[in-house]
Amino acid sequence: MTGDEAGEETSTAQMSMVAASALRFDDFFVANQQEMVRALALALGDAELGRDAASEGFCRALERWKKVGRYEKPAGWVYRAGLNWATSRRRKKRREAVGDVPEQSSPAIAPSDQELVRCLRQLSIAHRSVIVSRYYLDWSEAQTAAALDIPQGTVKSRLSRALEQLATMLETP
Amino acid sequence: MNDDRIRRGLAAAADEIEPGDAAEVRASLTARVRRRRLLARGGALAVVVALVAAIGIVAVSIIGDDEPATLVGVDPTTTTAPPTTAPPTTVADVPVTVVDDSSDSDSPVVSIVEQPATASGPASAERGSATGGSESQVLAGSGSSIVYPEIAVPWRDGFLVAASRAVAQPLPNELPEDIRELFPQEVLDLFPDGLPPTISEAQQILSDAGLLDEVTEVLAAHPEANEAVYSQSAPPSEYDARFTIDGNDWEPIDLVLPESITWLAGAQSDGERLVALGSTTTDDGTESYAVASTSDLVLWDVQPIPLSGRADYPDIFLQFRSPISFAVSGDRWVAQFTEHVQLDPSRLPPQFADGYSPYVVAEGIRLERWIAGVDAPETVTTITWSELDIAEDVGAAIAASWQGGAPLPTQLYSAAIGGDVVSSEGPATYGSEAQVLATPAGFVGFFDGVRFSADGVEWQLQSDLDEQSRILGSMGMGDGIVLFTVDRSGAVVGHRLDDQGRDLGAVEVSALPDGWAPLTMGFAGGGTADRVVLVDAGQDQEMTAEPLQVVEDGFTLTVNTSSQQDWTLIEDLTGTVVAAGPFAASDDQEFMLDFGPGIRVTNASSGEVVAEFSDEAYNAALRALSPPSYGYRPDLWLFAAGDDGALIVEDLPEDSGEFYGGWAIVNGDRALVGTGDSWFIVNLP
Question: What is the dihedral of CA B476, B477, B479, B484, to 10 degrees?
């Protein structure tokens, strides 16, 4: 290899590295946006809130992309950030509510498996978020634990309890 | 419970959710980030003005545009009581509740010093300091503290807490002519006087003009344009660093990274010397790490770590190494890194560049092309490992890593500060929790059992550890360690180890509510075993879903799914309860509910339909429901090591605001405890 060829090869490698690095958030966003909106909508039981939560999660990830982009599973970080933001917003809205004015929410997700969705809706967000992580996002228990920042034992117990509740509700005629 | 049904049900429900236009959302993100930064700056000023106007605060100063304001810690949103600079007051000596077998019932208790003390007002205001806010890591000006620290260490006679803040990447003054020609004229027209100083400013201008997507496409299609735009190296992170002695008054302190380090992944300090693991960018543009030490936070000695990988991956995968442990014992340090890969979609063959979603599967990379409204992907193809010129075993490792079904390999690096770095293979791990802790004698590693190393290179097996156990946290006790693990049943178990990891027996903790666990921050945190650990025994609040009410044809069906778990059918005209029953099925129930489609109430014995509600009515009732009420209520405790091996357990007050995690840093006989919305000092025995 001539000196020039070697130089050219190095230059190409550098260029690719810069390109990959510079585009990484966009790549991540494009690859994960739809799935994250849907996962958060399912976990929160509210499509509009899911969209807002995903947007918030991605926004925070973008702010910290230098760090979040290096995580093993940045989508897990976005999922948690979105969940935290949404539950926080709900609490805030409840605090701000005057008297018994009911909380406004967007239309519920139209149920396909109506019975299952109805039962899922009865679970707490903590349980739903684990169910969605495992069965919709197909994350392992370890990945779910890392994403939700809870011990793996807690993932197991929440999953077990959620499935038990679902089974009980679905058995109910 | 049928797993497939859940998967199918979730997938079907997910398909009905419209995720929104990705390009529109993406374009809005940059603008939102920029707006927040502007608001954060303006917010600091606004808070100061509000405080001055409302309560006549006395100690306020603003230090330049990028400098956070410094003021007496108080939550301006929750109190009208004047803050005080009076000495901290000990207000809570909650009784010691648990000690281990060797404890003395007269063991000194931990005292909590609230900051600042006020005569009246809500508890959240009394404890002051940082206020909860989910928008930013650093609440500049709203409490003079840091909400989500990346560094929290003892320093001099107090504590150093710091968080990084983003620094905009600069743009070159102008682009070469051959690069300019790649962009549409309307883009060039936006910058008649040259490019703005930073990429984020340019993005904002492009976004406002609706041209950001076009520019992104040009950059994606022309690597040389991308290289030119991003040719100015990203500046190193700036740190918002604060120093406090009492947890109340926080002073800005200069923390200036060495030029070669872009951000810090973890840091340890003995109070006089800060030793940090920092990320660096090498000459060829790849990321690496270095250990940097300083005694004044400005002048550093930097020691590069020669990172090496286990396998060579093809270019289509980006290889990352993430630090999970960083521990410093005396003059030696140990750093542990996991290895993982990410698919780089920009390296896919050109025919799959647009519209394809790539997934790593056992056979290779699966590419799916979906059409909106269609249940199955229109096009599916798989590029096999052999087609990618990737060995089957490497492909299998990539697939396992991608799917999360296999632990990640790790590599250990160790050296004396300033000495030669030695690399050794570490144990594979699923998690990102620290596996190496420093003790006065050296390092204890939680690998395939508990191992000890005096130098971080040679590791001796000292005691067994259930392979199913996961380490949750640790604390120092005397010269040794208390290690907290969770076993396969989900229970947390405490183990007392000496300073070389030898098992000294279990630590019983019985007085805490079920479900307690130490709070750890992970990601190269937890490298030292401090003599305190923050514990959370919080519980999910009971769900308080409102009842479902379906109304149709003169009947109202009310289904309580919260606590009563029952249902009632009322005839609207007379108000008579026509039928009722428990939600759970039972053999002796008189009436039954039959869901889907719609709801039918039937007589269990005769099968007679008592009332029937259509699917439309049922869906209308579902839509009218507010989301179930749910919340997480933290229950914070502090474990502290007593003089004689006693484990002192202290119930801490919780704020009602946001809860981000916990920090507990020890300096001498005082601990600075942070819970995300407040900081306070705990005097240790």
Answer: -60
Contacts of A80 in chain B (CB under 8 A): none
Is residue B358 within 8 A of residue B366, CB to CB? The reply is: yes
Work out the burial of residue A140: count CB atoms within 10 Å of its CB; fewer than 13 is exposed, 13-18 middle, 19 or more buried. middle
Q: Which residues of B, range 391-410, sit inside 8 Å of A by Cβ?
A: 403-405, 408
Give per-residue pLDDT as tens, A102-130: 333 333 333 446 677 777 877 878 888 99
Contact B627 A105 (CB under 8 A): yes
Q: Which residues of A touch B13 (CB under 8 A)?
A: 42, 109-113, 116-117
User: What's the one-letter identity of residue B228?
Assistant: A
pLDDT tens-digit readout, A61-116 = 887 776 677 677 788 888 988 887 787 666 545 433 333 323 333 333 334 466 77
Pairwise CB contact (< 8 Å): B6 & A45: no
CB contact under 8 A, B26 and A33: yes
Helix or strand holding residue B204 (H, E)? helix B199-208
Q: What distance in Å separates the CA atoms of residue B212 and residue B30, rounded to the nearest whole number?
A: 10
Structure tokens at B39: 């608001």
User: Is B525 within 8 Å of B473 (Cβ atoms)?
Assistant: no
Interface mutation vs chain A, best among B342, B432, B487, B618, most A CBs within 10 Å: B342
- Which chain A residue has its CA at the smallest distance from B284's CA? A14
Report the complex ipTM. 0.79
For residue A75, what are its two tokens? 């989508």
- Is the distance from CB of A144 to CB of A131 less than 8 angstroms? no
Q: Which residue has the tokens 């027209």?
A: B189
d(CA B649, CA B652): 10
Q: Are B668 and B119 in contact (CB under 8 A)?
A: no
Q: If you search the block for the tokens 């849907």, which residue do you land on?
A: A38
Element (H, E) at B187: helix B185-189
* Chain B residues close to A122, C-beta within 8 Å: 543, 545, 561, 628
